[in-house]
Amino acid sequence: MARTALLFLLVLSTVLPNRGSGQPSRSRKAPRARQSDVGDDDLKSQINKLWQEVNSLKEMQALQTVCLRGTKANRKCYLTIDEPKHYHEANEDCIAQGGTLAIPRDLNENNDLQEYAKRSSPGSKEFWIGVTDMVKEGQYVDVNGMPISYFNWDRSKRQPTGGKRESCVMLSLSTQGKWHDEVCRSVKKYICEYLIP
What is the C-alpha separation between 34 and 152, in angstroms, rounded? Predict the structure, then answer.
């Protein structure tokens, strides 16, 4: 954070001296109102660009912190949260941290999530993931509303079984990472994911 602020001040100090000292000029040149307006717009543009860079650096720093606390796999960082919450609270918490509930897109990602959950939260058996059919029964989408093409249902338990009552999906460690549908108001631990740029 201090490095980011220092970078911003350094760049700002190189931009501002070009604007003059604010003292009246000793020469008798005609005023250039339009040039001043262009200069103001250029300065505003540079400041906006700097703020975007500062915010980008903050996001990268936050992502690195998350990755250090969690694990990296498949151009994503995963972080288990051990405080059980219902599905909507879990999703909101992941979003507040700059991510989403984890969305396994293939068998490798699902296996990575399963292994990470085992290591990071021993003894826990169920974790919310970012898959739901709340909008339309039987049509599973991720937390961004995009259709899901990979599924890992526990067919031995005839999953999904819940009908309209069970609309949120959890990853079960007791069934080797298979998915189960569940009542969204149930409280469970959860896994957040963060995309690595």
Answer: 64
